[in-house]
Amino acid sequence: MWMLNPEATSRLVIGSMLFLRFICPAIATPDTHHVLQEQLPLKARRPLVFVSKVIQSAANNAANSIPNYNGINVNIETNQVNNSNSNSTSTSTLNSTLSSTSIETLKSFGIKEELIQIKKTAKIDLNDCLACSGCITTAESILITQQSKEEFIEQINKKDRINIVSISPQSRASLAAYFKLSSTQTYMKLITLFKQLGVHYIFDTSFGREISLLECCSEFIDRFSQKHFPILTSACPGWVCYAEKTHGNFILPFISKVKSPQQVMGTLVKQYFAKLTNTQPELIYHATIMPCYDKKLEASRTEFKIESNISEVDTVLTSAEILEFIEEKSIDFKSLPDSPIDKLFNNFTESNEIIGVKGGSGSYYECVFRYAAYKLFGQDLTNVEQLPIITKRNNDFKELSLLIDGKPVLNFAIAYGFRNIQNIVRRIKQNNCNYHYVEVMACPSGCLNGGGQIRAPITMFNNDINNDSNNNKSKSSLEVAKQFLRVVEETYLGKDNYITNNNHNTEYNTNNDLEMNLFNSLNTFNLDGSITSKSQSQSQSQSQSQSQSSKILFRHPIPTINGEVDLLNSNPMIAKLYNEWLGNKPGSQIAQQYLYTTYRKIEKNGQFSSALTW
After folding, report:
1. Considering the chain, what is the average pLDDT of its residues?
2. Cα distance between residue 568 and residue 170, in whole Å
């Protein structure tokens, strides 16, 4: 065994601990093998695991044998909180009482003296994210204090506030596929669930998506004359975060300034709805149900706060977190009665037909393409059901072009997943990108396959699974994931092949944790200022609950009427919003004030990202 003098031993102990706790935290976690297996190639795993074990063992043995050598008293406490996904969240407290000799030892490692003397709890929050897909996207080793189910329940139980939940169509489809219901049924049952918990209004983020699409169309026409291409969509917060913290000022001018549907809904709720109901924004609690963990990041941005301290979206929960809550509370979701759909900020017809777009990530490229084709080149594509989309190197990279006299005048693309995003960025840097517009999403397959979507259990498709060996289990898991994603996509498009007949009068037997408040004391405010009473809502629910399947109307937000394209033709409620509040048309100065945002390069702070802020 090596013989080390006291000073060398001291350096080894402290150096090992610093390395494990700060330089390479992944190695020091209890889930070392799991992390390494997921993030490293096979050849790199074994030596790194071996080194981590050797250093950890040496540090532990040395610390135990020299608990207080040379005035050093180092105590590391690790508290772990496991969430329902069995992912660990950790904070580390490093308590050090050091003599002058020990301080000199640490300073020899290049550590500043003022840092040595501080006893502080290291806490990771959403502002530390680098959009690297290694922590928040997979929910590993991150402390989320204001974006949890527990926070949601605590907030909606506060008195004298209006509670609002906005649900994304992707989350609706994910839950519907899991429970084998239609999207419409699922939405109505979610309304029942949330209103039982004490939520007053349930809105549909696809209403915000329609407004976002209109603004994107207007923005494209304005920027087309500037010939500064391509325009890159901004609806994906993972991509935006990656651009800000990795490529900075070079790539940011290419990104669309239009807010995402989630943040458009946040603006509508905290500003328009607040004025409509004569309520202070701070007295409105707004949560969203989204398919992506990175939406939590988006909601925390300082750009999306009113008067610096009021968030447009207070809490973001994912589809998977809603399922976890349902299972934790032992709720029989399929037996919940169907509740009437709130008419304000919802994309449903009077007969509960969903007004949707075919693209699972919002159809930005298709909507803007159709509008630009007509507005710039007089090409009416209203009756063209299927645009000539060409799949390139993979299913997540596609192109769409408008040809006039055999020459391309519009070139659009879809780039999903970071592999394809990096390809687009590289082309831009090489001045070799001929696209006018690119729909960019960080997740492969787009938002329907977001990191916060439900992951199907391996037993969901029993007939297609062979569990004879571990290899077969692994292959089956992958196949189940792919098959479930296909079901989610079909559900999103309204191809429901498994509608169940439920007794809509079934009483919901709740436990004491749930507040039975299906029709709460607040009446329903209509867009025209009228009020729907509770008795009217109850009578409407009887007719609305008859709809078993999802009928989806795929309506382009910008149809041609009598040979003219008007951005406000398709939705009277949106037209009313613009006429009363947003300057009469998309792209107006008032609309830009409320519906546009800005980006800025985020500097890394030294070696660590813990001081990063949005």
Report:
1. 74
2. 25
